[in-house]
User: Fold these one by one.
Assistant:
Number 1:
Amino acid sequence: MSWKPFALTLGLLVAVELAVRVFGVPAYLVPPPTEVAVELVERWDYFAANIPATLWETWAGFLIALVVGVALAVPIALTRFGDQAIMPILVATQSVPKTALAPIFVIWFGFGFTPKIVVAALLAFFPIVVNTVRGLRSVDPEIVQYLRTLGAHPWDILRRLRFPTSLPYLFAGMKVSISLAIVGAIVGEFIGADEGLGHVILRAINNFDTGTMFAALLVVSVIGVLSYGVIALIEKRVLSWQPDDVSAAAGGA
């Protein structure tokens, strides 16, 4: 892993620390990074107790989004009905603010994990759908036609050609989706929860405790980086046969 992101982050933190101290910015507006670090260390047990709930909601929502997203991508990519009927509906659903839906899910499913998981899944599934569709369609049509002339079944073409070809695109979508799943979990916890980092942030805001709020946001950011790293590690293992330039091109899709 490159040292440059850490160096840049450290430089930004030092700049914020100096700016807050020099210009006398009140701590309730922007606490110095050193005070946030002290808050994180002194109250680590409090933060650690709320991490498992957010992790569970994030990854459960992400995995649901992965399964549903891939299942929807296949008919969208390979059938005219899916492209003309299903895809426009999915695009329309993305214009609906998920924060507006979260209270409805609380009414439907209660204050447990379910509404947070649903919000996380809704935020996470669309990048998976879009990237998987593009990957499934990236196969050379001449190769598909050649396999058909040899009598290959459409399922065999999907399983042995289209799906392996789409994997770099799928992983590109997964990297985006895991970050969105974390956002969805936090948003769900804002609406109604008695545990989780979103609950910690909301309580801190209500108490004007910006030190705790920034410390919780730091923990959320670390979870996001580590979750992204897990996906990247899985991608590296699964796509060990794939040239790096292909994976990079898919990542820019």
Note: The mean pLDDT is 86.
Number 2:
Amino acid sequence: MRQGSPRPGHERGKMHLVGHNFRVELKELIVIPNIAERLKTPPETKKKLGPIKNAWCEFDQAYGHAIRNCLSLGYQLDELVNIDFLKDYLQEP
């Protein structure tokens, strides 16, 4: 993706790095066994992983951003959507 181009999920004044709309909440999606085994969870850290002090990311298990703004999760879910692995979990456009 070229620099400056909006990703899916871009809303006026707000950017969601996980740009797909799923039928279930992201925190529920990432623990579904066949999906969870395909996701590479980051190593545990005590560091804040983003600019928002109190925002908790269920995927990173760290503060700093919400799960909807998780860069690592967004890229991995994009890959699974592109190979149609998550087609049953996507909402209709």
Note: Residues 1-14 have pLDDT under 50 and may be disordered.
Number 3:
Amino acid sequence: MQSSDVLADLARRFRFNQNVLAATTGGFAPDDWGSAPGARGGNTPHWILGHLAATRRFLARKLGVELEVEPWEALFAMKSKPEGTAGFPAPAALAADFAATGERLCARLVELTAAEAAAEWGGSFPDGGHTLAGGASFLSFHEAYHLGQIGLARRLRGHPGFA
């Protein structure tokens, strides 16, 4: 598979995840957003959505998209704790940012040259990837993993499955 095919497939996956987000959160009430998945706590759907929006912004910047850093991004950084929602933007605002950044991210993915895609990320990922394309591939998986967490939270809150 050529580099351009791989990048187009990654863009397709990120666009698909936009639909998954809408399906997994459709019908959510305000209480659903802040619900922990269990008695021991865990990532709330609100925190997960913010984390995904912030991660998309991070990846887009890494690929060369110019985006200002929003103050809320730090609330959802890796290893941050989903304790309450103080300072969190509303879920609708985060979902809108997720979509808007996703459009810019997908546009950039399909315009990357083979040399840009093969450029070093500056570290490696659990799957062994170390290029910009490898980072985008891993973060596509990361996004799907967290969307699955929202899907589980949906079912635990009594909502029907979406698929």
Note: The domain at 3-156 is CATH 1.20.120.450 (Four Helix Bundle (Hemerythrin (Met), subunit A)).
